[in-house]
What does this fold into?
Amino acid sequence: MIPSSVCQPWPPDQPGQAGIVVHPRSYTTPGDTTDGTELAGTDPLVIIGPNGVGKTRLSVALAKKNGAERVSAIRELGVETIQMQPKEKASNYIRQTLANTEKQTWIASSELTHLLSEILIEDKDNAVEYRTIARSGVDIGKIPEQLSNTRKEKIVSLWNSLYPQRVLNLDYKPTVTRTDCSPPQTYSIARMSEGERTCLYLIARIISCKNHTLIVDEPETYLHPLLAETLFAALEEQRPEIQFIYITHSMPFALSRRNATIAIARSDTSLEIVADRAAIPDSVFADVLGAASLSIAASRVVFCEGDVSSFDHVFYSAWYRCKRTEVVPVGGCSTVRECVNTFLSGKVTKNIEPFGHIDRDNWPDKFLGETKNVTPLPINEIELIFSFKSVFEALCELNQLTSLKLSSELYDEFIAEAKIKAKSALPHTILLRSKQRVEIEQRGLFNSVRANSDYAVMRQGFSTTSPKGGWQAYLEALMDEERERLVMSLNSPATLIRDFPGKTIAEAAHQVTGLSTPVLRQQVISSLRATPQSLEKNRPLECVKLALEAALGNVLGPRTI
It folds into this structure.
């Protein structure tokens, strides 16, 4: 646990007063016994974490230790009519219900009816007092604002702003009127959608909050993501004196909280503050934060290219069959590198070891190997996973293609055909590799050019910048080197599948085997996912798995840790 400061909780008999000794906005994590970094200010704290880590119990402990009010994630929001009752009775019921939900967190919070009853009673009492003061001859402008701008008025106004074609009538038989149809339709509060009722409940609870710290468990439940973000932005504006602490699964919601401190729940007694939000690039913040909070047990995260539906993610998830490993797709090669670097820097968490796997994709070797813990595959693209000699031969055996030819003969045919297609694609591949190498090598070339108020000087500096020997000599030498490399690569199966694009090689595999590359790739995945029991009954599939492990065992990380 990374502790926050040790603060005295608010006195439970003095709700709403800043009773924390260190700072009126500080709070502490449960189980904290030593001084640590003070978490202070008026900005929100957002706690994220995987299912089962104990976020709800953590929120209860935070509320208890800091004297905070808590909005439960489990809510009973059914309301037909609102009971007329003395305000004190309604208030007592609310207190008792909230106390019960803190003791038994699995019980649905059912205080909405009594909360609305308290609000209506207060509204009517204020109206009577307002009228009495007004009749006494006091200037209307001097009548206390709270007598007219009541909780009821604030709740109705905010709810109506979120549903512009609905009109909420908050009375003892509350209704909603739809104004986007002719004639307008009125329905009872019991017929509200879950989202409409949830908004009403959250607005009523937060407008009624008497504490300086409010914990909201799963604020996004039943709400459209954009509505949840809009609702809580409005509530934070309405109650600027409240410190909001959100417990959420939603990464978009977490990132939508302005100036928020982000923390990761590690257990029901500890959380880990993301050390330096500003130091993490915006382009990868969501990716690294999501990776850091994915699993309770994870101690290794593997970043790969693509998205959750891409073959990269499918393959690496099958390779790393381990509860302590999470595979996270983050888009492109550069993002993989940046995510790994961010984890290695310790800016997110110190409890997870990061790794990255990237395709070669015709990038220069120096670029591919310059990031610690990021490993390029020995093939041009992950889609060529079947093209290793041992894997290809095992797949031939699995598909019973060896009745007329040996698997080794089929592999030789595959390589011969791939070489023919690679020679045909040679000019295109030379140009592609040359362009990408220039992009990488000259990335920092213009760093020496500085902005200058004298445009002529700046223009001269920019236009005369060139690599050693001049542009033409540099580009000619570079392309010659790439041509020489690719011509040499044609002579070896290992360098052929390393340096030439996947489409070229895949066409050759289909031509020799008669099988589509999606079929071959799926068989690779099946071998990695298969249980030991099923492999005992399917020895050819087991041979595919063993061939993969032999080909990649020294390149990828161990499948389990």
